[in-house]
Every structure is written in C-alpha cells, then in structure tokens.
Amino acid sequence: MLYAKTTPEQKRLKLRELLASGTIQQFPGAFNPLSARLIDEKGFAGVYISGAVLANDLGLPDIGLTTLTEVATRAGQIARMTDLPCIVDADTGFGEPMNVARTVQELENAGLAGCHIEDQFNPKRCGHLDGKNVVDLDTATKRIRAAADARRDPNFLIMARTDIRAVEGLQAAKDRAKALVEAGADAIFPEAMKDLEEFQAIRDAVDVPILANMTEFGKSDLFTVDQLQAVGVNMVIYPVTLLRSAMGAAERTLDSIKADGTQEAQVGSMLTRARLYDLVDYEAYNRFDTGVFNFRIPGTD
Ligand SMILES: C[C@](O)(C(=O)O)[C@H](CC(=O)O)C(=O)O
Predict the structure, then answer these.
(1) Domain coordinates of the chain in residue numbers?
(2) Does the annotation mark 86 as catalytic?
(3) 8-239: which CATH topology?
(4) What pLDDT does residue 1 have?
(5) How far is the CA of 117 from the centre of ligand 1 (A)?
(6) pLDDT band, residue 301 (cuts 50/70/90)
(7) DSSP class per residue in 92-132
(8) Does residue 161 have an active-site annotation?
(9) Separation of CA 192 and ligand 1 centre (Å)
(10) Distance between CA atoms of residues 231 and 199, nearest Å
(11) Whose C-alpha in 120, 172, 173, 176 is 20 to 30 A from the C-alpha of 204?
(12) Ligand 1, residues 58, 130, 215: which to mutate, most atoms within 8 A of Cβ?
C-alpha cells in the first residue's frame, strides 16, 4: 500500500522543484479522492482541486457559496490519498485579509501543497464568464501579503490569481501580476487569457512561475502542453475536465437504463470491478488480514 506515504512537507518541496524545472507540469483536477489516485497512477505531476468542482459536487454554482471548512475538509480528503502535491482553489480567501491568513493555515493543516487566492469581489464568478468585478490593487495585494505571512511552511505555495484581464485588459493584467509578485506571490494565475501571445506577455512581465487554465467551454482555446511550454507557462490545470467527463458518462448510462431497461450498452466503457479494486488497493487490505502489515490505511495518519 503506497498511497499517502509522502508527507505534506515533502509534497510542497516537490512542487517547488517541479515549478523550477523549466518543464511545464500538468495538474488535472480531481473531483474526489479516488480520481486523485487515478491521476497519480497515470503519472501526472500533481493534482488540482477546483473550487467549481467542489461547489458543483455539492449541487451549487461556483459563486463563492462554499465555506472554508467545506473546502479544507474535502481538499484534505483528496490530498491524503495521493503522493502528488495538491493545489486547491481558495477563491477570494473566504473574507478579509485576516480570514485569508486563517485560510492558508487551515489548508496547510489539511496537507495541501499550495493554493490560489484571487482578486475578485464576492460573490465571485467563474473566471471565464462575463460580469466579473475585481477589487482594487490595495485590497488584492493585502490578501496576498496576509497569505504569504500566515504560512508556517515556507514551501507552501501562494499563487495569486488575477481576473483583471477580462475587466480592464491585458496591460492591467501585467501591472497587477507584477504588484502581486511584489506583495509575495510565489506564482501567478492569469485568468481568462485570450491567446498564447497573452500568456507570453504575462511571462515577460513577471519572473515567477505562471499557470494556464485549460477549462473547456471557456474564453481560452484548449492549447496543447507544447504550445503552452513554448510561451513559458510552468503549469497547466484541467480543473473541471474529469468531473465533466464522469458526469457525461453518468448521464449516458442513465439514458441507456431508461431507454433500454438495462445498462448493458454502457458496461464496456465502465471501470471494471477489478480495476476499481485495483485503484483502492484491495489486495493490500487482504494481505493485512493475513498479518502482512506493510501499509498504512490511508487517512489514519
Ligand atoms: C479555475 C476555476 O476557478 C475552478 O474553480 O476550477 C474555474 C473553472 C471553470 O469554471 O471552468 C474558473 O473560474 O475558470
């Protein structure tokens, strides 16, 4: 049983190394702990935990309705089931700068490797929708200063997300990115970039790692990892991709059951029982019962 043998401190160090490597790193979004294990098994660099997914999973829109407790709890459940570093979407930080400080400490306690905090007003909106608003520079930089100051592990990654591009344009995004780095951001998430040239412009404006959000049905085209690497992006997330895929499959199966009176037509595309057992390492638990105590039950450390 090999899951979650890596400590949060080791994961944070690993994340720092990955971002310094000069090679772009892919972080698919997990929609539950089990999908994080799949991401891990497939050899990705890390796991992204999307605010939209956490909200949608509860049947809610992604407009800042989830609480710090809900986000930290679920993100912690995901993080402890994988040896990969996990980055979580902390929205606007859940309040004033003092709340942002507590948010960071709670996310550290939950075993995350880092988080991003954005400069939208609450209630926030998906970064790829119209009608967003951003806070002024002073408020935005205070959030980041509070976050950077609050962490106890210096390797916990504080990423500043700015949504200003869609509101005030590219020059404003470059200016804000620079100011957020000065305030202590370790990385920048420029939201809703229109094209590769815009990513390049942010790359040229700051000397910290930058992230690209390849969310479907949004404002950015779905660039390949090579295209993003070529313009100096360090990390790419696919935040809602697995939830959309899984829910798409669930809908097709339900339609089959309704139409055919059986799920038979969909069985071929399902994860088999054996594969599912493999993902939860069923065999390791059987071995435990025979006296081979060579694993820790995930989540009990
Ligand atoms: C990155 C994001 O904030 C998220 O919650 O994952 C969303 C993703 C989405 O709604 O597709 C975003 O604002 O881009």
Answers:
(1) 8-239
(2) no
(3) TIM Barrel (3.20.20)
(4) 44
(5) 12
(6) very low
(7) T-SSSHHHHHHHHHHHHHTT-SEEEEE-BPSSP--TTSSS-
(8) yes
(9) 10
(10) 7
(11) 120
(12) 215
pLDDT digits (tens, 9 = 90+) for 58-113: 999 999 999 999 999 999 999 999 999 999 999 999 999 999 999 999 999 999 99
Residue with tokens 């993902």, as numbered in its chain: 279
Is residue 208 a contact partner of residue 169, using CB atoms and an 8 Å limit? no
| List of residues 6+ apart from 217 with CB closer than 8 A | 128
**Token duo for residue 169:** 């344009």
**pLDDT grade for 295, boundaries at 50, 70 and 90:** low
DSSP the chain: --TT-S-HHHHHHHHHHHHHSSS-EEEEBPSSHHHHHHHHHTT-S-EEE-HHHHHHHTT--SSS-S-HHHHHHHHHHHHTT-SS-EEEE-TT-SSSHHHHHHHHHHHHHTT-SEEEEE-BPSSP--TTSSS--B--HHHHHHHHHHHHHH-SSTTSEEEEEE-THHHH-HHHHHHHHHHHHHTT-SEEEETT--SHHHHHHHHHH-SS-BEEE--TTSSS----HHHHHHTT--EEEETTHHHHHHHHHHHHHHHHHHHHSSSGGGGGGSPPHHHHHHHTTHHHHHHHHTT---S--TT--
What lines the ligand 1 site, CB under 6 Å? Answer: 50-52, 62, 89, 126-128, 213, 215, 218, 239-240
C-alpha of 239 from chain center: 6
Res 132: pLDDT: 82
CA angle 242, 78, 110 (to 5 degrees): 145
